[in-house]
Amino acid sequence: MYNGLDPAGFQFQQQKEDYDLFIGRLHSAKGYRWAIEAAKHTGQRLLVAGGWRPSLRRNIRYVGTVDGDRKRALLAGARCLWMPALWDEPFGLTLIEALFSGTPVLGTHRGALPEIITPDVGALCDNLDDLIEASHTIATRSSEACRAHASRYFTHITMAEEYVRVYRQLIANGALPPGRPTPYTT
Fold it and tell me: Distance between CA atoms of 29 and 14, rounded to whole angstroms?
């Protein structure tokens, strides 16, 4: 059963601006350094949003901790969201926030990311060089496909319906029902 968010809380934007985005805790396990290295290699402008200010270069700008309207605008305008997790990310709400905003995701095959990101809404790679290569084609993902994917699997309503399904089965016969197929396998 997946986490869910209300799509009405996100700003959808089809036409993207000229920046990539990393948003999250600035810890090595979150992979923010990979996003920075990729920006250095590609020359792509990168905005980094998180809890403390790292030392950055010309095309890389630290925007501080963001939430509310500022977070919505950054997610909606980004060419892509970088999520190069170097640990087994348990879920990644930021991923579905980006997808609701029509923004594709670049990430790794760690933790829950392969259950969330499909080839039509992003790219998953195992190393920095492959992520850099994938960043060159990330703009081929449709904003509408990103939003539709998140709306199909990751709304607050879908999450509540799944909980109700599990609880009904558990009450009826004392056993958990079989799981649902992940987005990547359907």
Answer: 31
**Helix H or strand E segment including 49:** strand 46-49
Residue with tokens 């992520």: 131
Distances in whole angstroms, Cα of residue 39 to Cα of each of 60, 121, 122, 179? 7, 20, 17, 39
Give the N- to C-terminal CA distance of the chain in Å, as an integer: 15
Q: Taking the domains of the chain in order of start, what are their residue ranges?
A: 7-152
Own/partner pairs for 89-97, CB < 8 Å, 24+ apart? Answer: 89/113, 91/2, 91/3, 91/116, 92/116, 93/3, 93/5, 94/23, 94/24, 96/3, 96/5, 96/150, 96/154, 97/5, 97/10, 97/71
Sequence-distant (6+) residues with CB within 8 A of 23 are: 48, 49, 50, 66, 71, 74, 75, 81, 94
The span from the CA of 75 to the CA of 22, in Å, is: 9
Contact by Cβ (8 Å): 21, 80: yes
Inter-residue contact 20 to 82 (CB < 8 Å): yes
- Could you report the per-residue pLDDT of 109-140, keeping only the tens digit for each? 999 999 999 999 999 999 999 999 999 999 99
Average pLDDT of the chain?
89
Q: What CATH number is given for 7-152 in this structure? A: 3.40.50.2000
